[in-house]
């Protein structure tokens, strides 16, 4: 959390990179990251704010944890989640805010 050293993320490790890309491939998981970007949260609040069930949220949180993007602290019976790589989130959210236009590839020129 705040003041802790951010753990290393080895994106040269193919398996780790696949986990990160899989985690970022879901709009729900992006919404969870955006929610947690505002600060740590226990499971109940994201369920209400994002309009998803607790089991569904737990599944997405597990994928984000396996990717090394978030972590969890237990307080009694509650699990509080937080982003453990805040320096990665700024560029990620900047990329997501850009407008991307789909342009189909043109047919390759045929040479005779």
Corresponding CATH architecture of the domain at 14-87: Orthogonal Bundle
What is the helical fraction, as a range of percent? 40-55%
Just give the CATH class of the domain at 14-87.
Answer: Mainly Alpha
**Structural shape:** globular
Task: Determine Rg (CA atoms, Å).
Answer: 18 Å
Biggest β-sheet: strands ordered side by side in the sheet: 1-3-2
Keywords: DNA-binding, Transcription, Transcription regulation
Domain HTH arsR-type: 9-103
Protein name: ArsR family transcriptional regulator
InterPro entries: ArsR-like_HTH (IPR011991), HTH_ArsR_DNA-bd_dom (IPR001845), Metal_resp_trans_reg (IPR051011), WH-like_DNA-bd_sf (IPR036388), WH_DNA-bd_sf (IPR036390)
Structure characteristics:
single chain, 112 residues, alpha+beta, Arc Repressor Mutant, subunit A, three-stranded antiparallel β-sheet, 5 helices, 3 strands, 47% helix, globular, ArsR-like_HTH, DNA binding, DNA-binding transcription factor activity, DNA-binding, transcription
Plain-language structure description:
- By secondary structure, the chain is of the alpha+beta class.
- It has a domain at 14-87: Orthogonal Bundle (Arc Repressor Mutant, subunit A).
- Helix content is 47%, strand content 12%.
- The protein is built from 5 helices and 3 strands.
- Strands 1-3-2 form a 3-stranded antiparallel sheet.
- Strand 2 (70-75) and strand 3 form a beta hairpin.
- Helix 1 runs antiparallel to helix 4 (54-66).
- The protein is globular, with a radius of gyration of 18 Å.
């Amino acid at each position: 959390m705040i003041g802790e050293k951010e753990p290393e993320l080895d994106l040269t490790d193919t398996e780790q990179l696949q986990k990160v890309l899989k985690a970022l491939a879901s709009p729900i998981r992006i919404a969870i990251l955006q929610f947690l970007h505002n600060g740590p949260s226990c499971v109940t609040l994201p369920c209400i704010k994002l309009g998803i069930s607790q089991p569904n949220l737990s599944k997405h949180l597990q994928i984000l944890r396996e990717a090394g993007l978030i972590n969890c602290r237990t307080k009694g019976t509650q699990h509080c989640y937080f982003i453990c790589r805040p320096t990665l989130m700024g560029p990620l959210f900047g990329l997501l805010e850009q407008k991307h236009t789909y342009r189909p590839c043109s047919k390759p020129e045929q040479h005779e």
